[in-house]
Specification:
Oligomer: single chain
Order of helices and strands: HHEEEHHEEHH
Radius of gyration: 17 Å
Largest sheet: 3 strands, antiparallel
Number of helices: 6
Helix content: 40-55%
Distance between the termini: 12 Å
């Protein structure tokens, strides 16, 4: 997740709300829907992220197949899409790219669904990494975070 944030310039919630269908490998693009200011935008998909995202989609597909087998497999759809396309919430392309570890009850519909991952997961990981380097002055920590982002991209 950190690699996609750094490599594509996404905000945390934009990243978490990505769906499988938002990744366009052919055009090396990520479609960010309903981003800041409720605007849609397109950003780059660096070559170094492609294998990682392909593996992530395979993981999402396995989770989704398990959920379907257990009688679940739905996700919340934006706006009126659930009414317009009643079966879309069970399709792989609408699944979150970074799904939650467990199922939960949708407060609007009362149905059991899989939501996106909790934003605190990445925040806690970054905080823990920063605390490991807490003995450094703030400016050095900021530089360290930029260095970490660059290393993540170079390592693929």
């Amino acid at each position: 997740m950190a690699k996609i944030l750094y490599g594509s310039g996404l905000r945390l919630m934009e990243c978490l709300r990505l769906r499988v269908k938002d990744i366009d490998f052919g055009n090396h693009q990520i479609i960010v829907r309903d981003g800041k200011g409720e605007d849609d935008r397109v950003t780059i998909l660096p070559d170094s992220l492609i294998p990682h995202l392909q593996r992530q989609i395979q993981t999402v597909q396995r989770i989704h197949q398990t959920d379907l087998g257990d009688g679940f497999g739905e996700v919340h759809l934006p706006y009126a899409l659930a009414r317009k396309y009643p079966n879309a919430s069970r399709e792989l392309i609408w699944q979150y790219l970074f799904p939650a570890s467990g199922l939960s009850k949708d407060p609007q519909t009362g149905r059991i669904m899989r939501h996106h991952a909790d934003p605190s997961l990445l925040q806690k990981a970054i905080r823990a990494a920063a605390q490991r380097h807490a003995h450094q002055p703030h400016a050095e920590r900021v530089g360290w975070m930029r260095l970490l982002g660059g290393l993540l991209l170079r390592q693929g």
